[in-house]
Specification:
Blueprint lengths: L10 E3 L4 H11 L3 H12 E4 L2 H4 L1 H14 L11
Antiparallel strand pairs: 1-2
Helix pairs in contact: 1-2, 2-4
């Protein structure tokens, strides 16, 4: 919680699936914060109360949730 790393909180989340990503992306352009809250609310599993009560912590979790869903490089070949 502090910049020196002296205090930490624990938050358990699941990796967002396509349904959650789709719901978040519907509002992402017009309201990016709401998009992050959709991710948080649908992926949150539990943890220290600060993860839901402290807005800075919640925002940090939202940023990490976005990073969890990685788009892989794909190639398509005609057969």
């Amino acid at each position: 919680l502090d910049d020196e790393g002296k205090s930490t909180v624990t938050c358990y989340v699941k990796k967002p699936d396509l349904t959650i990503i789709g719901a978040a992306s519907q509002v992402a352009e017009s309201n990016p914060l709401q998009s992050g809250l959709i991710l948080f609310d649908n992926c949150y599993l539990g943890g220290d109360p600060e993860t839901k009560d402290n807005e800075e912590v919640k925002m940090s979790v939202m940023v990490e949730l976005i990073k969890m869903f990685r788009i892989r490089k794909a190639t398509v070949k005609n057969v």
